[in-house]
Specification:
Blueprint: E1 6-7, E2 10-11, H1 17-32, H2 37-50, E3 57-59, H3 61-67, E4 70-75, H4 85-98, E5 103-108, H5 112-123, E6 127-133, H6 134-139, H7 141-149, E7 153-157, H8 164-178, E8 182-184, H9 195-218, E9 224-228, H10 233-239, E10 248-256, H11 266-269, E11 271-275, E12 278-282, H12 307-315, E13 318-324, H13 325-339, H14 345-357, E14 366-371, H15 379-386
Parallel strand pairs: 4-14, 5-6, 5-8, 6-7, 9-10, 9-14, 10-13
Antiparallel strand pairs: 1-2, 3-4, 11-12
The structure holds pyridoxal-5'-phosphate.
Residues 83, 85, 112, 188, 228-235, 299-300, 344, 346-347, 372-373 line the site of pyridoxal-5'-phosphate.
Length: 390
């Protein structure tokens, strides 16, 4: 048996001693409570009746004709809240409740994970405090208002660059102090063990549904699956049931301004190091200082990545590619016009990569794109960036 906190050499638990007790308590609860009948029955209610699972797998007639293979979209954009993040927020909130916690804290960059946590907190009647960098609060006014309307408190973070990675540090500090009453609800497959495993397990519902849906419609497994990778939770969620199969798996990273400019392509252009309690690929300078990432889509703007993706990268099981801001913007309009479905800018990265891959597939090959979220939140930004080209 290998070390359950590791994915090959990646992962682990690089945290101060004061956090070890909390992580061990969480790990124990994860292994004992989650498999139990009571948790599973409650989760069934929240995912299906409350949040609207299962999400459709849509065969795209126009995209299939245009790209020359059989293209499906996994519709996480149709989940309550408009993105996949709610799968994890509901799972962790329910686990925390059954552990006897009263309060949830979360970090958020663009505000999407903060909103998902605020929704889960309201549904489960728990207090929610969301740490958010002052710079992000300024940039994401709509999500700040949404969180407040949902009953959450937004706590401004004014350390470091006043963005996501600083908000994570503050949330970790709060957790150490208030661990008796409080659960730290991390938003992606990042951070110290058991978070990368816990969040993956809550997102694997995407892949399990996809597998059954493709089987039913096509009588075979998909030939290729594409997902975007920020922290990596929607990607690992759809990839997991296919890791032992022949399905080709592709991850789209934030290529940002391109080879010479700022980016968020951690796996394609980073090196391993330690951030937020885990050993994984990072965007860093020659001295190991973590650098600011950049992406047109806030959800992919993180200088780290889930440790399991680092392992899958080195193993060659998943192939990761950078998609530039411009390619993502093109794909945003492409999907909107071809199918009448406006994707999140994050998900548009997966659509762009699918357009690259499709020419290498045969006419009856099945290609699944994980549409991690809907694009309403990005409409104003895209209109401004694209301007006259609309
Ligand atoms: C947050 C977000 C992502 C990126 O997060 P992952 O953990 O990599 O999935 C992707 N798509 C949408 C719609 C998001 O909100």
């Amino acid at each position: 048996m290998g070390d359950p906190s590791r994915f090959g050499v990646y992962g682990g638990r690089f945290v101060p001693e004061t956090l070890m007790a909390a992580l061990k308590e969480l790990d124990h609860a994860f292994r004992t409570i989650v498999p139990g009948e009571k948790f599973q029955a409650e989760m069934q209610y929240y995912l299906h009746e409350y949040a609207g699972r299962k999400t459709p797998l849509t065969f795209c007639r126009n995209l299939s004709r245009d790209l020359g293979c059989r293209v499906y979209l996994k519709r996480e954009d149709l989940l309550h809240s408009g993105a996949h993040k709610l799968n994890n927020a509901l799972g962790q909130a329910l686990l925390a409740k059954m552990m006897g916690k009263e309060r949830l804290i979360a970090e958020t960059g663009a505000g999407q994970h903060g909103v998902a946590t605020a929704i889960a907190g309201a549904a489960l009647a728990m207090q929610v405090d969301v740490y958010m960098g002052e710079e992000d609060i300024r940039r994401q006014a709509l999500n700040v208002a949404r969180m407040k309307m949902l009953g959450a408190r937004v706590v401004p973070v004014s350390s470091g660059s006043c963005t996501l990675k600083d908000a994570i540090n503050e949330a970790l500090r709060d957790w150490v102090t208030n661990v008796e009453t409080t659960h730290y609800l991390i938003g992606s497959v990042v951070g110290p063990h058991p978070f990368p495993t816990l969040v993956r397990d809550f997102q694997t519902v995407i892949g399990n549904e996809t597998r059954a849906q493709v089987m039913e419609k096509e009588k075979k497994l998909p030939d290729a699956i594409v997902a975007c990778v920020g922290g990596g939770s929607n990607a690992i969620g759809i990839f997991t049931p296919f890791l032992g199969e022949e399905t080709r798996l592709f991850g789209a990273e934030a290529g940002g301004e391109g080879p010479a400019g700022k980016h968020g392509a951690t796996l394609c252009r980073g090196r391993p190091g330690i951030l937020h309690g885990t050993y994984t690929y990072l965007i860093q300078d020659a001295f190991g200082q973590v650098l600011e990432s950049h992406s047109v889509s806030a959800g992919l703007d993180y200088p780290g990545v889930g440790p399991e993706h680092s392992f899958l990268r080195d193993a060659g099981r998943v192939s990761y590619h950078p998609v530039t801001d411009q390619e993502a913007l093109d794909a945003f309009l492409y999907l909107s016009r071809a199918e009448g479905i406006i994707p999140a800018l994050e998900s548009a990265h997966a659509v762009a990569l699918a357009r690259h891959i499709a020419p290498g597939l045969a006419g009856d090959d099945v290609l699944v794109i994980n549409l991690s979220g809907r694009g309403d939140k990005d409409v104003a930004q895209v209109a401004e960036l694209v301007g006259d080209a609309l």
